[in-house]
Design goal:
Order of helices and strands: HEEHHHHHHHHHH
Radius of gyration: 30 Å
Distance between the termini: 110 Å
Helix content: 55-70%
Shape: rod-shaped
Structural class: mainly alpha
Number of helices: 11
Strand content: under 5%
Length: 244
């Protein structure tokens, strides 16, 4: 091999090496996706969905609908999604967090669902529709914790009329006696005039368990002996003598 051939060979090798180096460099580079957010301390986590902070109304899904509307892969990646929910909550993406909570309602992992409701409980009244979906969860611990958080948020609502509206709606269909007693106790803790009129309303409801609990609570509040259904119906205005 003459000198010119050797020089040509080495020149070609250098060029080839440079081309391979460029390919390797750009092959390892990953362009950040537009829906990624940086985690504190480095790294990234995908939190998909609409990033807009504009308010939008959320519909309440029936808690016992039983239909799994979660997209493929959502259920399997439950714990990763819970971590993303925490990240979204920290960055103020309340709506997106609530949407993920609806998706994870069908997660087979009770631990995941328990973490979800605790995140919702931290959001407060804005997450009441989503938290309601977990009130009748198939796992007793999840259902119990969901009710505890939900009741605490409702009891703390500053709008008395809204509070009463939510309590009455649930007492009309609730069958668990322990829960009924707890919600009636929340009503009884209202200012006396409001408590008396609301308890009388529940005492005449079509839910016998709630009606009985309300009559008992009203008896204690008003100091009356006869709280039978007939007596309540005959004296619907007797609570007016109770003042705050």
């Amino acid at each position: 091999m003459n000198r010119r051939s050797i020089i040509t060979f080495f020149s070609f090798a250098v060029i080839l090496f440079a081309i391979l180096a460029v390919i390797v460099r750009f092959g390892n580079h990953r362009t950040p996706q537009p829906d990624e957010k940086k985690r504190p301390g480095g790294g990234s986590a995908v939190y998909s969905g609409d990033r807009s902070e504009a308010h939008r109304d959320r519909q309440t899904v029936p808690a016992n609908s039983g239909e799994n509307t979660a997209p493929t892969g959502v259920v399997a990646n439950g714990r990763e999604m819970v971590a993303d929910m925490r990240l979204g909550l920290a960055s103020g993406q309340t709506n997106e967090v609530c949407e993920r909570a609806l998706q994870l309602r069908q997660s087979p992992d009770a631990g995941v669902r328990l973490e979800v409701i605790r995140i919702l409980g931290g959001i407060g009244w804005r997450a009441l529709p989503e938290l309601s979906d977990y009130l009748y969860d198939g796992d007793a611990a999840v259902s119990r914790e969901a009710f505890r958080l939900w009741k605490g948020i409702v009891a703390g609502l500053p709008n008395e009329n809204k509070k009463i509206q939510i309590l009455l709606a649930n007492l009309s269909v609730m069958t668990d006696q322990e829960r009924i007693d707890e919600l009636v106790a929340v009503l009884a803790a209202l200012p006396k005039a409001s408590a008396a009129s609301t308890l009388l309303s529940v005492a005449q409801s079509s839910n016998p368990r709630a009606a009985e609990a309300a009559r008992t609570a009203y008896q204690s509040l008003a100091g009356v002996a006869d709280v039978s259904p007939s007596a309540v119906q005959e004296s619907p205005q007797q609570d007016m003598r109770i003042t705050n």
